[in-house]
Design brief:
9-stranded mixed beta sheet; alpha/beta; 6 helices; globular; Rossmann fold; 31% helix
């Protein structure tokens, strides 16, 4: 598997997280150890009001943000964000750097580009992690993410969720 960062891109609500779960399943079946954070999938057919992060190392989850007012959270646009969850995620990711082949980030977005959330964690991981980083990014933010974290475009593998999945997944790993 490649050590260059892998970015899963697509528009909002294009099943980027589902693609990440699929890729992680294939990597797992190929024997790779996966750490990092990924969003918990919502219940199908339910309005999404809460976003939770799952630590891929332990399976532990934490509420990250919600559209429901939370007095102890900070407002960012229409969301109420628990920055303590980002602190928890940072600790889990840094701990995973030593013993996992792959680190996942779901997703790098406006908060990171504003210098918040996992911004500092991403700088640390992109500069020193020896394994493979897989990150979900909205397609329209990809160039800003590459620039922010000093990644030349030709040093990243970009997988598009709007292309045939088998072809895109095959660029990384095949599971038999």
């Amino acid at each position: 598997m490649r050590h260059k960062p892998i970015f899963i891109v697509g528009p909002v609500n294009s099943r980027k997280t589902t693609f990440l779960y699929t890729l992680c399943s294939r990597l797992d079946c190929s024997g790779y150890k996966i750490g990092g954070v990924i969003q918990v999938m919502p219940i199908p057919g339910q309005e999404k009001k809460d976003w939770e992060l799952s630590d891929q190392s332990s399976g532990e989850t934490r509420l990250l943000m919600t559209t429901t007012f939370q007095p102890e959270f900070e407002q960012f646009g229409r969301f109420w964000v628990d920055y303590k969850t980002f602190d928890w995620a940072h600790e889990r990711i840094i701990a995973a750097m030593q013993s996992y082949d792959v680190l996942t980030f779901d997703e790098i977005g406006p908060l990171e580009l504003a210098g918040k959330a996992l911004h500092a964690t991403l700088h640390q991981v992109f500069s020193s992690y020896q394994g493979t980083i897989i990150a979900v990014v909205r397609e329209k933010l990809l160039d800003a993410v590459l620039q922010t974290y000093g990644i030349p475009n030709n040093e990243a593998l970009v997988l598009h969720v709007q292309k045939p999945w088998e072809e895109e997944l095959g660029k990384v790993v095949m599971c038999e």
